[in-house]
Amino acid sequence: MIPTPEQAYALVCDYNEGEFHRKHARIVGDVMRWYANELGYGAEADFWQTVGILHDLDFEQWPEQHCTKEQELMREKGIDERIIHATASHGWNLTVDIKPEHEMEKVLYAADELTGLIGACAIMLPSKSVQDLEVKS
Question: 137 lies in a domain?
C-alpha cells in the first residue's frame, strides 16, 4: 500500500503526540514534494511527500530504535517496501546500515538534517519564525 500524504500524516499522528514531530513531518514532506517537482519527478510528488512525512514515524516513542522500529510498524500496515527502505535510509550510518540509493533517498537524507537545523535556528529568534532568519545566520 502507498499511503496518500494525508494518510501518512494521520499515521504519524497515531504514533507522535508532540507538535514538534508532527510539524517536522509536515515540513520534511513539503520539502520532499518541492524537490520532486524541481528534480523532474513531479509525477511522483505525492510519493516523495509521503516518504518525507513518514521518515520519523518511530522517533517519539522509540528513539533508541529509530529507523528500525518504523520498518516493523510500516510492514504491519502493509506499506510499500520502497517507502520502508527510503524512510529507513535516512538513518544510514547512525542507526541502520541501509544506504540511501535513489535520488529521493539522498534528498531525504539531506532535507531531514537541513530542516532541523533551520528550525533550530528559527526557534532561537524572538519571533520564532524562519522568515526572520538573516542570510548570514
Answer: no
pTM of the complete model: 0.84
Q: What domain range is 111 assigned to?
A: 5-132
Residue type for position 94: L
- List the beta bridge partners of residue 50: none
Take residue 93 and report the three cell numbers written for it: 550510518
pLDDT over 70, % of the chain: 90
End-to-end CA distance of the chain: 41
With a cut of 70, list the residues of the chain below it in pLDDT.
95-96, 119-122, 124-125, 128, 132-133, 137
The cell for 18 is: 508532540
Cβ neighbors of 102 (< 8 A, separation 6 or more) are 86
